[in-house]
Here is the input.
Amino acid sequence: MFCPNCGNEVAEHAVVCLKCGGALKPLAGAPAAFDPMAKSRIGFILLGIFLGGLGIHNFYAGYSGKGIAQLLITLFTCGFGGIVTWIWAVVEVCTVQVDSTGRPFSS
Ligand SMILES: [Zn+2]
Here is the structure.
């Protein structure tokens, strides 16, 4: 088959064109393509548990607004508010399923 982007001949089951790097049409019936841009769900949970009081998990998932809010609450209360933001973070890692672009976390 041929690359739709540059016309280069590529292997029958190739997923990317070796010449231009463009993605090729996935085969019909193939399982959902692995998304290299997806954030790791495990990473999100671990960051939330260990650094959730500083909002780091939200920065990781692209929710910078919430991350900044949690960071500021913790800093301005000299860490005491971190108990509140940490509970907030744990609730988030249990309930948030997608990053800020709507992309599901990878498992
Ligand atoms: Zn190509």
About this structure: Residues 36 and 78 are 38 Å apart (CA to CA).
